[in-house]
Amino acid sequence: MADAVYVLCAVTSTACAVLLLRAYLRSKVRLLLWNGLCFSCLAINNVLLVVDLSILPRIDLSVVRSVPVVVGLSILLYGLIWDSSRRMR
Q1: Dihedral through CA 76, CA 77, CA 79, CA 84, nearest 10?
Q2: How far apart are CA 10 and CA 7, in angstroms?
C-alpha cells in the first residue's frame, strides 16, 4: 500500500510541474515558472523516494533524495525574492 502512495505522489507532483510550466509558457507569469521548477525538483525527489524505498530498500538514498528538495525550494525562494524586489522598484 505504501508503494502505491509513493507512486501516486510522484505522478501528482509531475502532473503539477507539467501544468505549471505549460501555464507559464502561455502566460509568461514568472511565478508560474518558479513554482513549476520547484515542483519538477519535488517530482524528482518523489521518484527517488520510490527507488529508495521500493526498488533498492537496502541502499540508503536519503542524502541523495534531499538534494532535489533543497534545490527546488531554493529556486522557489530565489524566484519569490527576485520578483518581489523587481516589483518594489
Answers
A1: 140
A2: 5
